């Protein structure tokens, strides 16, 4: 392999292997390097030896738009996906995965991709996934869709005689309280996140090609339902979970947006139900973390830890009872902020930065670290320069979109525009990091609103093509 430059001024003898770990619906604070209500020692190890971006935002607080933005480096107002409606990304779409493959990597995917519908037999669309840039494919649907969608994983469930029990359990949850907490009927060895982790582990153990590898391990959890299997289901005490965040009662008249509609339709959650959800969620994260630990162990056994980039992201967060809400689909922290970790050997270890970054920036970063060509039409920006200088300029703001609404976040403020272009959310992130007081339309912040609206509109114009 020839020498080449990786990042500003960094010359390496071999192209690094790349391990991308992705979770689904993981809150930004669902890591024990951030919070004390759960335990993720292996994720913490990635953060401790790499860089943690504290102010990372998804490009859309819902699965499909976020994942299309991640794959393409384009915003919802570019690719047209504003919600979780069925969508099949064209095989001709430029992606960072294809760019990395074109640079000489052998690429693989284990787990959830969600760039085409989670229906029927996913293997019938494997040619699409390969066209997106992934050579070896073992794709699964999300937790709820797996009751009907077929994959190599569900074939195993059928052979083990557990598929029908899983399907019935999912239906029962939806027909009663969707937020009911109970262990999965699947044995631990058949649980989806275990399947994903073990398939990736086996692949890396057996990998013997001469080319560097890129392996995308995409867990379906901790996405609801809250069904962590034992022993993880009872690993955390609900009574030890933090109470949900509650907003202050606002008195000012202000414009309304989609979040207001969600708040009016809040489910009747009881305090003990929220505590149980959080404990089960923490259990699912512990399970995923254990799988990550096994995969990292394989990289070490292969003697490749010093030449492997390890990154971790999630597509969006989970409210888990904050503000009385479930799931995502809003611009509050628990929904729109995501974990964003990257560990490059011999580059800034154990550092953090509050520079705003976007989910799509991970793709551009991995492209640069692989020495690959930038993706055509992408608005993603590599964070590789920040690995050497965390204070270096990157983005002044992060942009997210959801059903015609726009969120803009800086290191100090967060603002959301409704579909009519009116500011209906405004939070002072420095003095109110939990976003309990909505300042929108207060006279004393009129100048702030004007400046943030201008920045948001300029960004939309600059990324309009």
What are its keywords?
single chain, 465 residues, alpha/beta, Alkaline Phosphatase, subunit A, four-stranded antiparallel sheet, 14 helices, 31% helix, disordered N terminus
Structure description:
By secondary structure, this protein is of the alpha/beta class. It has helices spanning 41-49, 63-72, 76-79, 96-102, 126-131, 152-160, 163-175, 192-206, 258-264, 271-301, 333-336, 361-369, 384-388, 446-462, and strands at residues 4-5, 11-12, 17-24, 51-53, 56-57, 106-111, 136-139, 213-222, 308-314, 340-343, 351-353, 357-358, 398-402, 405-409, 413-417, 423-428. It has an 8-stranded mixed beta sheet, sandwiched between helices. Strands 13-14-15-16 form a 4-stranded antiparallel beta sheet, covered by helices on one side. 52% of the residues are buried. Residues 1-13 have low confidence and may be disordered.
Quick summary of this structure?
The chain is α/β, with parallel strands linked by helices and 465 residues long. It has 14 helices and 16 strands.
């Amino acid at each position: 392999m020839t020498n080449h430059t990786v990042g500003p001024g960094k010359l390496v003898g071999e192209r690094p292997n790349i391990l991308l770990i992705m979770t689904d619906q993981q809150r930004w604070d669902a890591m024990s390097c951030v919070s004390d209500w759960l335990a993720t020692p292996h994720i913490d190890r990635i953060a401790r030896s790499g860089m943690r971006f504290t102010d990372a935002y998804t490009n859309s607080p819902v699965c499909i738009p976020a994942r299309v933005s991640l794959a393409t480096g384009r915003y919802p107002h570019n690719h047209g996906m504003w919600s979780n409606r069925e969508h099949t990304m064209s095989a001709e779409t430029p992606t960072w995965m294809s760019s990395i493959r074109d640079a000489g990597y052998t690429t693989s995917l284990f787990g959830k991709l969600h760039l085409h519908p989670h229906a029927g037999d996913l293997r019938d669309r494997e040619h699409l996934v390969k066209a997106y840039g992934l050579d070896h494919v073992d794709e699964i649907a999300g937790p709820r869709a797996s009751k009907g969608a077929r994959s190599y994983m569900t074939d195993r469930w059928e052979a083990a005689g557990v598929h029908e029990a899983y399907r019935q359990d999912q239906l029962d949850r939806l027909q009663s309280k969707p937020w009911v907490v109970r262990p999965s009927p699947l044995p631990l060895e058949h649980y989806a996140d275990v399947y994903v982790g073990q398939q990736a582990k086996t692949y890396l153990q057996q990998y013997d090609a001469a080319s560097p590898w890129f392996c995308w391990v995409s867990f379906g959890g901790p996405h609801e339902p809250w069904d962590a299997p034992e022993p993880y289901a009872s690993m955390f005490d609900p009574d030890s979970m933090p109470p949900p965040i509650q907003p202050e009662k606002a008195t000012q008249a202000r414009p309304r947006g989609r979040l207001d509609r969600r708040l009016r339709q809040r489910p009747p959650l009881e305090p003990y139900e929220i505590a149980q959800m959080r404990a089960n969620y923490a259990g699912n994260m512990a399970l995923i973390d254990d799988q990550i630990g096994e995969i990292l162990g394989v990289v070490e056994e292969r003697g490749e830890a010093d030449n492997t980039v390890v990154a971790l992201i999630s597509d969006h967060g989970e409210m888990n009872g904050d503000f009385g809400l479930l799931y995502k689909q809003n611009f509050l922290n628990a929904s729109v902020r995501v974990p964003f970790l990257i560990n490059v050997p011999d580059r800034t270890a154990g550092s953090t930065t509050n520079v705003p970054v976007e989910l799509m920036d991970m793709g551009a970063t991995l492209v640069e670290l692989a020495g690959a060509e930038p993706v055509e039409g992408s608005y993603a920006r590599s964070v590789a320069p920040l690995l050497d200088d965390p204070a270096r300029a990157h983005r002044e703001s992060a942009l997210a979109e959801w059903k015609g609404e726009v969120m803009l976040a800086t290191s100090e403020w967060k603002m959301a525009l409704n579909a009519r272009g009116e500011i209906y959310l405004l939070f002072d992130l420095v003095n109110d990091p939990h976003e309990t007081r909505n300042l929108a339309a207060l006279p004393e912040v009129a100048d702030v609103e004007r400046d943030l609206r201008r920045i948001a509109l300029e960004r939309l114009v600059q990324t309009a093509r």
